[in-house]
Design goal:
The complex is a heterodimer of chains A (423) and B (433). Helices cover 43% and strands 23% of the residues of chain A. By secondary structure, chain A is α+β, with helices and mostly antiparallel strands. In chain A, helix 1 crosses helix 4 and helix 9 crosses helix 15. Chain B has a seven-stranded mixed beta sheet. Chain B has a five-stranded mixed beta sheet with strand order 10-14-11-13-12, with helices on both faces. In chain B, helix 1 crosses helix 7 and helix 9 packs across helix 17.
């Protein structure tokens, strides 16, 4: 059920007996901006670890423990041209515990206190807490480079979105930006966020819906005066392949490829693109998995993924550096094979079954409902489960071949292991 | 079939042992779309010295053979098991730990076909020298990938400190050298020894009808012949009861941005399987929360001093035959990190004795966490370990947690947190050229 709490502030309640917990998510959405990304990441860390009512982590953790180990977290993410700051709390359903405490209502109150009563005074966040979280965010951003798979993916992103700096950056921000953020500047930005961002509140579980709606209506959210952010960023095809190479002391090299693929969430090519991706590199039955990994023994992993909010397709592979040219050629050959229709109808049926299995399985995760509600609000459309299944079933081999013609290789990032001894 | 009702959680489990020795456990979950099944043998990376079935002498097998066998099980003469699961829309996987190898699938449709696929591919081995050779390239890549992973190196560095001269300290996947020696004959010998139904369990949870599913499994198993089960003789080297073989400190350099440190504590006293093991695990987990959890004084103090940050974490590993604790994190000052953790461990009394209120809050938290896990088919199934905990499921755990008293925690701390059982391992950033 949807309830409008104010203009641009929407409450979605989903009732279900399936789960033994109740989940509450509040999401703040804004257009992604180079100047704001790092501030929002730092805000997530501050809100997760402190508030006026729970001034240090121990007090906050204790309150959560008393709510039977309520799981509370804050984080940031990107969807196309939007940036999301999200807080969530999940509590066990009281029915399964020897308690009469109204844990779900307590959890709402907790979240409201966290959001509206941060640990701040005189227009700035508490200085020691701010400094500690700024230091920790800087360290955690810098450490990301130690995960080579992630690092290579990030470097590919920089190349793929050379035309738009905000699209290049990871959702968790830039270490170099942290020094310029002050406890006062961040507090000012937070006040803007609270009135300008689109807000979604999503509650999923087994609770009294009317009481919950009343509680959220009492929060008096303000009408949003700014326009809704756009749902999609459209990547531009460069028309040619550009590869960057970097050498580090590594045993395993990484090859990441980025393609222009102008297919967007739920547009006319969307369902065919989902099946195409399964066929290309999205499943263990895929061309990449069977040809790069299994047949040629060239890689431990080789897979593809879609970003239908930005119109790109990506491939990543962990390989032996000396096989670079061979792997690149095999990946290209797999795409050509699909474009020429070299796949069986049986395989397509299996890939569809796999997609259906993933979709139906996702309904067994409480979080799925919140993720879907957010996307529906972002794109202002919704598709029923039955229609989703019908749309996947209806995809034809001709549509898969047609959608494969839209794929154009644009960028590559090759992280080579310089000190590797060949054998 | 033994039926266990967990009224408080509105759940029921069904258990039985088939004529061929296979233990089957089923847990239907109302409202779920998916079924998750996991087929496990009590055979892991530490079991590399054993008397092969039908032979009389102990033989040493190459490190990594259990994991290699896991990879090779999927490949058959004319097909790959992944393809069969794919045909029925299931998602399949497998993993090898120190003491177990598990094969699993999850599916929302075609449960009968998928279950039969799982049972058949694990129970009909097919290895040839040619396919074994090819797999060496794939697993070699997997090993190299882990070599570059600082967290993996940190964890195994600590295990090497705590268990030198013990098969635990070898990587589960082995090394490129050790797997190079594996032959098809050795895979068959390991298979015949450890993959007897008597040494295996099948756990199924989610959308299912217990009577119907059991009938399918029984028919499938009745159609197969197995030799009479011979108790398995394995040799695992003893480690020093007083911990004198523990390496107290090592450090390496890697191309990392920030140093990483890990402090380990080896359990020196054997833990009895069954309910005692379940109680012990719950007790240690509560004790760890009291000492270093985010509700503890230690945690806040060290966090505010910058000695630990959000990368800090701890883990208790309890498996059949061994147990150890680890505390790890990224830090600018590994020596200060280690000293702070060791100080907290050696002075556990102040965080435990008389701390009734803290214990009460942590018990609530731990019981809540079990309720969280009850949402996840994977968590319910993967937490089941017959070898270690008998027939207990996660729904037996809240009562165990509820019964814990401060005296129990003090007893565990006295026994576990002894100075001679503690070790340190650090990864320091390599100097840049």
């Amino acid at each position: 059920m949807q309830t409008q709490l104010a203009k641009g502030v929407q409450l979605t309640t989903v009732l279900s007996h399936q789960f033994k917990t109740n989940q509450i998510i509040i999401n703040f959405r804004a257009p992604i901006k180079r100047t704001d990304i790092t501030k929002r990441a730092l805000l997530a860390n501050l809100l997760e670890t402190s508030s006026a009512d729970y001034p240090d982590q121990r007090a906050l953790a204790h309150a959560l423990a008393e709510m039977y180990g309520a799981a509370f977290g804050a984080g940031v993410s990107r969807k196309g041209p939007t940036h999301n700051l999200q807080l969530s709390i999940t509590v066990p359903n009281e029915r399964f515990l020897a308690t009469t405490e109204p844990l779900t209502m307590q959890a709402i109150d907790f979240l409201v206190k966290i959001i509206f009563k941060p640990l701040a005074q005189d227009g700035h966040f508490d200085e020691p807490t701010f400094k500690r979280q700024a230091t920790n965010l800087k360290a955690s951003i810098e450490s990301v480079a130690d995960d080579k798979q992630y690092y290579a993916a990030q470097k590919l992103n920089e190349a793929l979105f050379a035309a738009d700096v905000a699209q290049q950056l990871p959702s968790y921000g830039v270490a170099a930006d942290i020094a310029a953020i002050t406890s006062q500047g961040l507090y000012d930005y937070y006040q803007t966020l609270l009135v300008d961002d689109q807000i979604d509140v999503i509650m999923m579980g087994d609770f009294e819906e009317a009481a919950v709606i009343d509680r959220w209506q009492a929060v008096a959210f303000k009408n949003r005066l700014v326009a809704r952010p756009a749902a999609f960023y459209r990547h531009q095809d460069t028309g040619n392949y550009l590869e960057k190479t970097e050498v580090q002391a590594l045993s395993q090299a990484k090859l990441n490829l980025g393609y222009d693929f102008p297919v967007f969430y739920r547009d006319q090519h969307y369902y065919a693109a989902l099946v195409f991706n399964e066929l290309f590199g999205g499943s263990p039955l895929s061309k990449l998995f069977t040809n790069v990994r299994e047949k040629a023994s060239l890689a431990y992993y080789a897979s593809s993924s879609l970003d239908t909010f930005r119109g790109v397709l990506k491939v990543s592979a962990g390989i032996d550096g000396q096989n670079h040219d061979q792997v690149l050629a095999i990946i290209a050959a797999q795409l050509t094979a699909i474009q020429q229709g070299e796949f069986t109808d049986d395989l397509v049926d299996q890939l569809k079954l796999g997609l259906i299995n993933d979709f139906e399985s996702s309904l067994d995760s409480q979080r799925t409902f919140a993720i879907q509600a957010l996307i529906d609000d972002l794109t202002q459309q919704t598709v029923s489960d039955a229609d989703w299944l019908k749309n996947i079933q209806a995809v034809t081999r001709e549509q898969i071949i047609a959608v494969a013609q839209l794929v154009t290789l644009n960028n590559g990032f090759f992280l080579n292991g310089g000190q590797h001894e060949s054998n | 079939m033994k039926v266990t009702n967990y009224d408080q959680f509105n759940e029921t489990s069904y258990q039985t042992k088939l004529a061929n020795g296979l233990t089957v456990t089923m847990l239907p979950k109302a409202g779920y779309h998916k079924t998750y099944a996991i087929f496990t043998t009590n055979y892991g990376s530490i079991n590399n010295t054993f008397v092969p079935a039908g032979e009389t002498d102990m033989r040493r097998f190459p490190d990594g053979i259990a994991h290699f066998l896991e990879h090779k099980m999927f490949e058959k003469a004319d097909h790959d098991a992944f393809q069969t699961f794919g045909k029925y829309g299931a998602s399949a996987n497998a993993f090898t730990s120190f003491t177990r190898t598990s094969y699993l699938f999850s599916a929302t449709r075609n449960l009968k076909e998928n279950l039969e696929t799982l049972l058949d591919f694990v129970q009909v081995p097919y290895f040839t020298e040619k396919t074994v050779e090819k797999e060496k390239g794939i697993i070699g890549q997997e090993i190299e990938m882990y070599d570059d992973d600082p967290s993996w190196r940190l964890y195994f560095g600590m295990i090497g400190n705590l268990y030198p001269n013990h098969p635990l300290q070898s990587d589960i996947a082995g090394t490129t050298d050790s797997i190079a020696k594996i032959t098809a004959d050795e895979l068959y010998a390991a298979y015949r020894t450890f993959y007897h139904p008597e040494n295996m369990t099948l756990f199924i949870v989610g959308k299912l009808d217990p009577e119907e599913v059991l009938a399918w499994i029984t028919a499938n198993q009745a159609s197969k012949q197995f030799d009479a089960f011979q108790p398995i003789e394995t040799k695992i080297p003893a480690t020093a009861e007083d911990g004198h073989d523990i390496i107290p400190y090592r450090s390496i350099e890697m191309p990392v941005t920030r140093a990483k440190s890990i402090v380990g504590v080896k359990g020196l006293v054997p833990i009895e399987p069954g309910l005692p093991a379940l109680k012990y695990r719950a007790g240690v987990n509560v004790l760890l929360e009291m000492l270093f959890g985010d509700t503890s004084k230690n945690y806040l103090h060290l966090y505010d001093q910058g000695i630990i940050d959000d990368t800090f974490g701890y883990d208790f590993e309890l498996q059949n035959g061994f147990d150890f604790l680890t505390f790890s994190g990224e830090t600018d000052d590994p020596a200060a990190f280690d000293a702070a953790i060791i100080d907290g461990l050696e002075n556990w009394q102040s965080a435990v004795l008389g701390q009734e209120q803290h214990l009460a809050a942590i018990k609530k938290e731990m019981i809540g966490r079990i309720i969280f896990m009850a949402n996840s088919l994977e968590a319910i199934a993967n937490r089941y370990d017959q070898q270690l905990f008998g027939q207990a499921t996660i729904f037996d755990e809240p009562a165990v947690i509820n019964d814990l008293r401060l005296e129990d925690l003090a007893t565990i701390a006295e026994q576990l947190l002894t100075s001679q059982a503690i070790s340190e391992y650090q990864i320091r950033p390599a100097a840049k050229n």
